[in-house]
Structure formats: structure tokens, C-alpha cells
Amino acid sequence: MDLADFDKSPNLVALFLARADVLGARPMLWAKRDGAWVSISWAEAARRVCLIAASLRRLGLKDGERVVIVSENRPEWCLADLAIMAAGCVTVPTYTTNTTRDHIHILENSGARAAIVSTAKLGKTLLPAIVQTDMCRTVIGMEPLAPLQGGVFKTVGWDSLLDGDPVLARAEVETRILGVGRRDLACIIYTSGTGGAPRGVRQHHGMILMNMAGAARVVVEDLGWDKSDGEVFLSFLPLSHAYEHTGGQYLPIGLGGQIYYAEGLDKLAANMEEVRPTFMVVVPRLFEVLRTRIIKQIEKQGAMPNKLMEWAIGSATRRENGKRRLIDRAIDMVIERTLRPKVRARFGGRVKALVSGGAPLNPEIGSFFSGMGLMLLQGYGQTEAGPVISCNRPAAGVKMDTVGPPLHGVEVRIAPDGEILVRGELVMHGYWQNEAATADVLMPDPAAPNEAPWLHTGDVGHIDAKGRIVITDRKKDMIVNDKGDNVSPQKVESMLTLQPEIAQAMVVGDRRPYVVGLIVPDADWALEWARDNDERFDFKALQGLPAFRAALRATIDRVNAELSVTEKVRQFAFADEPFAIENEEMTPSLKVRRHKLKERYGERLDALYRV
Predict the structure, then answer these.
(1) Distance (Å, rounded) from C-alpha 495 to C-alpha 472?
(2) In this predicted model, what pLDDT tens digit does every residue of 295-321 receive, in sequence order?
(3) What are the chain's domains?
């Protein structure tokens, strides 16, 4: 196995089968069964993929037809994804948090002819959508599904897909994939929809393979690729998200690694200690939560652990900025023997890198984990680009206010207005059945109209002296006040949510005289405040107390002291509840859906300009 395999492979299935032939009986996929981790070997995974592919063809699926997957992360997700492609079809991943209305949109837009769903619970939102759209001929249940009256589709059990002759099935797959090239469609991944209805991104085989090749070079050249035992990935983010789909599934496949499927957020900490992963891809929000928990635990341990934490963060920050002092080496030796082993143990003790993506990471978060002895790399990208465009590389020097240099083979340039433009095989061929939206983001270079178009990312930034991308904001989210001054909402929100008193925040101020904020107080802090002030802990009632509001006002003023005049948050209002996926105020990748919050709290925010 070598890096050239990524560049030479014609499609994802061919690469997987080649890896499986080499690795054979070694474990590939792991899941908890009755309290114990159980594995599926590479050879067995390949056998099942080919049998499922043969069964999908027997069920009537034809080349290019779309198949929806609705499932939590589990081995069957990976097997289904590969089998759909091995059958010559196209995977359409969807989020387990989707409502029936969401499923209707994706079914109608993709024209899916079959669906694979994991449980009866998830079927409760999917099956009514299938009945209403009347498009799917077949529904496959990984587990038994509850019967639904009125359905015109055929229901099939997962185990029945594994019937057949594995030798014949493998031969059929190998013959079929000879006609599948890197430019052919592999999957349609629907964007999270921060600004409206999700759009289907057409991801071709070469797009994902190029992403894998670039990411693999970071592992091999900067972090050390363990070919003997195989790298261990803990899969936690939804596989329906392009970041996990490429980074948490196909990158491990390409590297010949093992994939463990986490049991959920409530058991993630225990799973990390059990699995002892070498890599994880994670979103910034999880790092924020973990940082808060670690700090609270250290604060309770007395003056010396707190001093060690302060030294660790300071040393990491100076290292990033090239301002190391002679004493920092001695400080690091002390911290390495005292504080860091305890923190690393919480992540299993052998993590080579935690890769953050999906949303901007506050540099202070990165410096914190670096100081705690964990390699935290920030990646950057979007679904339309495979999704990884760039990543911090230790060999090039990790600086937490950058997202690193572009991956191998990726062209990046900055437009005159500061927008980041991207070109290369990793760029999508367009949105599914949406030529107008495609034309808005894929634009040819007027000076070279015959070359591949540039992807207009919508992100604003620049490239530093060492070739690393620095992102300053989202072009569409940029606040332009009534005086024409630009304000980065992400910067202000990130600084607010770093405060222990604030869990979530959104700021607005477009075409207004000043910036105002919508605040969700931190629940743990609010509980402590109530106890200290002899008040009953009622989240809603607390927000009406002048003293409680004054405490939050003091927190915001503390942040304002570090902001420019135009960035300062002048007034604020409380949200009625936390921003969440369930109330549609956050995407499944935990990004704030600004348009939803503005719809709900628009009048409340407008009133802040009349105070």
C-alpha cells in the first residue's frame, strides 16, 4: 500500500477491494454488541459489499439510480455506501435528525428509487415521506421495520441481502466497476442548509479520492503512518456529513485503518478511553465543551494544577507565534510529567491528531489543547470541495489562527474582494438539478475560459507568508453597519462563547448603527449563580432578574474591552431556549442557522435598537 494508490484508483470501490485483498483477516469495522466491541474483517466486509451489491441489482436497481441511507454511524452504513456504488448506483446520505418534510425534499430532489434505513424509529419519519412522494420502489431495513399502511414499496430485510454466491457477486462487481471512472458520480450529499433548503452536491469519485490523497499525505509525511497495526479512527460525526464521510470513512479505508463507531455523545468519553484512537475528526463545538469540562476539573484541584494549566497555554501560544522563551522548555518538561498525561489519557493516550473542521475554530481553543499536549489540527473546506481544501501541517508549523496550506493538488487564489477561490479535481461538478445555484458558485476564469471553473467558496480571507490560508469571515454573513464598516460575526460570537457564562451567541447589526446579540447563558454557570444568590434555579425566571442580567452584561463588557468600537455588543437579549438541531436553529454539523434565529427572534432583536 502506498500513496500512489489514491492517485491511480479509478473509483472508491476499486480502492476498497484492493485494500481488502491485502489486509484480509485484519479487523476493519468495530461496533459495540452486548457491551463488547465486535469487529468485521476486511475480507468479510468485501464479501458483504459484493453480496449486497448483487442483491440491489436483483431488486431492480439500475446504473445511476439513487439510494438514500438513513442511519446512525454503524458498520452497516459503510457497507451500504460501498455496496450502492458497487451496484453502479449513487448514494444519497441523509441526517438521522431529518424531519418527514426534510426527507420529502431530498427524495423528490434526488429522485431516489430505494432507501436503506437502520431502525423502526428512524423509519417513523422516513416512511411517511416515501408514501407521500411515491418514488421509492424498495425500502431496506437494517433492523425490522414497523408496517405502514398505504405503502406501495417493497420492504426487504438486511440479512436477505447477504444471500447469494460471493464468488459470482465479486466477479459481477469487478466487471461493473471497470466502467466507473473518477469523473463519475459517487454520491449526492445535501448541504446542511444554514441559509435555506439543502442543495445536493454532486460528489464524483475523483473528488473524494483526491481529498483522501491530500489528507493521507498529512498523515504519512507529518504524523507517521502505522502500516503494521493500522491507524485507529473513532467515528463520531454523522456519516451523512461530507467531513466524516471523507475523513472518517474513506481516509481510513485508504490508509488501511480500523474504524470504531462511537455509541453516541453521552458515551464518547468512555469510548475514547476504550478504543484509544490515533485519529478523530471533530467539530469545534465539541472541543469547546471538552475544554470547559477540563478547565472546571482542573480548577477544583487547587492552585498548582491551575498554575500548570496557565503555563501550558502560555507556552503553546508563544510557540505558535515564534516567541518561545528559554524557560518554556523547562516548563514543558514539568507539564509533560504532571498535567499532560492525565489529559491525554482522557482521549485514550495515543492520539496522533484531532482534526477540527465543519466550522471556524477559535485560536484560543487550539492553543489550549496544544498546551495540554494534544495535536489539534484545524482543517478547512466545504461539501462542494470534497470537503477538505486545506489543513494545518505540523511540518509547516501549526498556527491556530490559520487553517494551514492547501492540500496536495489544490489550487487556491484570493479574489479582489477577498473571497477564497478553489480549483482542482476536488471541486464538485455542480448541484444536483440546480443549474442556477451551480452557476452562482462555479465560475470560469475570464482569462482562461476553457480551463476548469473556480469554486467561489463564499469565505473571505488571505494567504500568509508561509502559504497558509487565513479565514476572516463568511462573505454572506459579514455585517456591514449603517456607516459602511465591516464586522465579523464569527469573531465576536467566538469570543462571547469562550466565556464560562455564555453557552451560545449570535450577533446581528447589518445596516444598523451598532451590533446587538442573542445570548444563551451556560446552564452550569446559571445553576451556580442561582445557588450563590439564593434564587430558585428556573432558567426562564432567572433571565428576568436584574442581577442575573447584570452578571451577563458584565461578561459582555469584558469581551467588549477586547473589541473595536464597531465590533462592541451594545445591547443583548436572551434566547428562549438553546440553539439546537431539534428546533432547526443549528445544522447537524452544529453551525448556527442565522436565518432561522432571525425569523424567530427578529422582533426582539429589532427592539434592542429602540432601547
Answers:
(1) 14
(2) 888 888 888 888 888 888 888 878 777
(3) 10-205+233-253 (3.40.50.12780), 283-426+447-474 (2.30.38.10), 479-607 (3.30.300.30)
